[in-house]
Design brief:
InterPro entries: Kelch-typ_b-propeller, Kelch_domain_protein. It comes from Dictyobacter formicarum. With 362 residues, the chain is mainly beta. The chain folds into two domains: 34 residues; 293 residues, 6 Propeller (Neuraminidase), CATH 2.120.10. Strand 19 and strand 20 form a beta hairpin. The N and C termini lie far apart (89 Å).
Length: 362
């Protein structure tokens, strides 16, 4: 009797243990399916859009010219603003904002946007904002310019007490002195534009006119960038008289924070007011490219210009905007004006300089 009862007790314990194990295993299986800390079973029918870190599908930017571009290192994107569209017979200025993330372009839709005006922009490391300087001619001889800043999400208008009243000025950020430098431009009148050679600096709050002992002659549209290797701003070319290529189009000047100095005997890569200057932080030299009748690329070594590529650079008939992409360590050029030599329909183009050669992106 005692043996029978003991046997039944042993059987009951085994059955209850088996049931408890099954319940626990089922609970663990349910946890595995939903826990974020455990690897779930791969879903073969999951849509591809759920893949983490997938590169976004690039959007196609409408063909345009006269855009402006700057790299935002805080948000790791290249920003492109505005320009004049070339799709329709009557070209229209736009105030669209686009971003390049290294894979493709994406149109942004900020809550607030600047007006559709031409201008220039640079990244201000002191304020950690992209600064946009827009040109607006209200009437003959009267310029009412605007300034905006980009915080990574939207645009915000700035209202400095003093504003340079010029169009077509050149602008660059001086990393050594933590300020933006704006040079030259033109003042429109009833029928002409008078070139000026004023130098202004932006301290994050207001513009201050400088009075250097030496300055380049009056001009607009000069190429300008900061040369980190030599801690100075380089200015090249520009338009001096408004009637096409002039003598100033082949001049090289440097700004040291106090005055301008013309660099004599530096060679004449181009006599063209449409060129671009971009500092390449990998090779630690400034690139010069984008002439109307030449696809060569030159670099500035601190004393002279050196030819590094005789062919392959995007030329002025295509040129729109350019900057240095720190994340990709390459120069990026958005070029979509179209080929004026062949009369071909303008198409958007993105070019990359990898330190040795140019490549048109697919």
């Amino acid at each position: 009797m005692f043996i029978t009862s003991l046997a039944l007790l042993v059987v009951l314990i085994i059955v209850l243990s088996w049931v408890a194990f099954q319940l626990y295993a089922g609970k663990l299986s349910t946890q595995n399916a939903s826990s974020p800390h455990l690897t779930p079973t791969k879903q073969t029918d999951a849509p591809t859009s759920t893949v983490i870190n997938a590169a976004p599908v690039p959007q196609v930017t409408p063909p345009r010219r006269d855009s402006t571009m700057a790299y935002d290192p805080l948000h790791h994107v290249v920003l492109l603003f505005g320009g004049t569209t070339t799709e329709a017979a009557d070209a229209q200025q736009t105030n669209e904002t686009w971003a390049w993330n290294g894979h493709g372009w994406k149109q942004l839709h900020p809550e607030s946007s600047p007006p559709a005006l031409q201008g220039t922009m640079v990244y201000d490391a002191a304020s950690q904002r992209v600064i946009l300087f827009l040109y607006q001619v209200q009437s003959a001889g009267k310029v009412a310019n605007e300034m905006w800043s980009w915080d990574g999400t939207t645009w915000q208008q700035l209202y400095p007490a003093t504003m340079p009243a010029v169009i077509g000025a050149s602008m660059a950020y001086d990393e050594a002195r933590h300020e933006i430098v704006l040079f030259g431009g033109g003042v429109p009148s009833m029928r002409t534009v008078t070139m000026v050679n004023t130098t202004w600096t932006w301290d994050g709050m207001n513009w201050h006119q400088q009075y250097p002992a030496t300055s380049p002659s009056p001009r607009s549209g000069a190429a300008m960038t900061y040369d980190a290797a030599h801690q100075q701003i380089i200015l090249y070319g520009g338009t001096g008289d408004g009637s096409g290529v002039s003598s100033v189009a082949s001049e090289t000047w440097t700004w040291d924070g106090t005055t301008w100095q013309q660099r004599q005997g530096t060679g004449v890569p181009f006599q063209d007011q449409n060129v671009r200057l971009i500092y390449d932080s990998v090779i630690r030299q400034t690139l010069l490219f984008g002439a109307t009748n030449s696809d060569a690329t030159w670099t500035w070594n601190g004393n002279t210009w050196v030819s590094v590529a005789t062919h392959g650079a995007p030329t002025a008939p295509y040129l729109s905007a350019s900057t240095y992409d720190d994340a990709a360590q390459s120069v990026i050029v958005y070029a979509a004006q179209g080929n004026s030599k062949t009369g071909a329909t303008p198409v958007p183009q993105t070019w990359i300089w990898n330190g040795t050669a140019w490549k048109l992106q697919p």
